[in-house]
Design a protein that fits this description.
This protein has 2 domains: 66 residues, Hypothetical PUA domain-like, domain 1 (Ribosomal Protein L25, Chain P); 159 residues, SPOUT methyltransferase, trefoil knot domain (Alpha/beta knot), CATH 3.40.1280. It has 6 helices and 12 strands. The strands form 2 sheets. Strands 6, 7, 8, 9, 10, 11 and 12 form a 7-stranded parallel beta sheet that branches. Helix 2 runs parallel beside helix 6. The longest helix has 22 residues. The model has no long low-confidence stretch (mean pLDDT 92).
Length: 238
């Protein structure tokens, strides 16, 4: 059986016995049909892996924490992705893969060419949906630190915040990542499907972001984000 890793939003201590939350119990018992007496891994976002044993697997699942160890999968690069909100499943896919590639924080950006409008209950539901995607990506990729997905903000609000080693994608830039000295922290700003406008790119560079060219080809937003993250991890992370 494939080794199972699951998230629990709770404090975990060795020798704790407790009932998993309803969603995780259902997934373990009904979907995976996980047997009593078998071990799996829990994590709660604190960077540790907790070896856990199933004590009871009926409607609810009762488990016991046996041991813990430090998870060493985190990158040396602390990376923030500020992403113009893409439509539908593109944004879901992008977030999932960004987490798998080691991003530490995701900031959904409402920019000039965003066609997605999020307010009220719709915003709350989308935020919850995105967080579930991030947790699932951590379970799959072996991470035990859960990246933060902040509430969507405007580009103006984002650029008002201080930045260390900020980069903005720009197809007319003459600079690549190979021109940048080794760093341990970075933020990458990428537009939605229509890209960032010329005015927004100027606004970003005025705020201290370095323009960045990924290559001679025009990339879709979800491709550009993942290429940028992967290259940064290759150069400065893991």
């Amino acid at each position: 059986m494939k080794h199972v890793r699951l998230y629990q939003n709770t404090s975990l201590q060795i020798d704790d016995e407790f009932t998993l939350d309803k969603y995780t119990s259902h997934h373990l018992v009904k979907v995976l049909r996980f047997p009593v007496g078998q071990n799996f891994t829990l994590f709660n976002g604190d960077g540790m892996d907790y070896t856990t044993k199933v004590l009871e697997a009926k409607k609810d699942c009762v488990v016991k924490v046996l041991s813990k160890e430090k998870n060493l999968s985190e990158s040396k690069l602390n990376l923030t992705l500020a992403q113009g909100i893409a439509k539908g499943e593109k944004m879901d896919f992008l977030m999932q893969k960004a987490v798998e590639l080691g991003v530490n924080k995701i900031v959904p950006i409402l920019s000039e060419r965003c066609v997605v409008k999020l307010k009220g209950d719709k915003l709350t539901k989308r935020q919850s949906h995105w967080q579930k995607i991030v947790i699932g990506a951590c379970e799959q990729s072996g991470r035990s630190v859960v990246p933060e997905v902040v509430n969507p903000i405007s580009l103006d609000e984002f650029l008002d915040q201080p930045v260390s080693n900020g980069f903005v994608l720009h197809h007319r830039s003459e600079h690549s990542l190979l021109d940048v000295d080794s760093i341990t922290e970075a933020s990458i700003l990428i537009g939605p499907e229509g890209g960032l406008s010329e005015a927004e790119i100027t606004q970003a560079t005025d705020a201290g972001y370095q323009s960045l060219l990924l290559g001679s080809r025009v990339l879709r937003t979800e491709t550009a984000s993942l290429v940028a993250i992967a290259n940064m991890q290759l150069l400065w992370g893991s």
